[in-house]
Amino acid sequence: MPTLTVEPDNPRPGKIVTVSTTDACPLPDGAELAVRIRPLGEPIPLAQARVTPEPDGSFSVSITVPPTIRPGQAVASISNYWDIATCPEGASCAAAEVEFTVAR
Q1: What is the pTM of this model?
Q2: What is the tens place of the pLDDT at every residue in 3-45?
Q3: Of residues 20, 30, 37, 29, the one with CA closest to residue 76
């Protein structure tokens, strides 16, 4: 499962962040991932970007922090990761997501 990072990690609403992977897993050729941002504890995403990862599964994508998001904790996630990837035996199948703080 990829580990995600958000830079900068304390953006204001309406600013662009970069969501990137570390510890990426290989994905099938032509795979397209949907990266979303939503407030922590809320099920509905407020922003989405699509990205085609490198052959090793790594990626970096720019996405705008929604101007309507409230300051506080938010989540960036790959919404369709388990639709594309397979979970090898003994590997974690936790969600591919990271929390970050939206500044005032």
Answers
A1: 0.88
A2: 899 999 999 999 999 999 977 777 888 899 999 999 999 999 9
A3: 37
3-102: which CATH number, 2.60.40.1930, 1.10.10.10, 3.30.559.10, 3.40.50.11030?
2.60.40.1930
Residue whose C-alpha is closest to residue 67's, from 12, 18, 17, 7 = 12
Q: Where are the domains of the chain?
A: 3-102
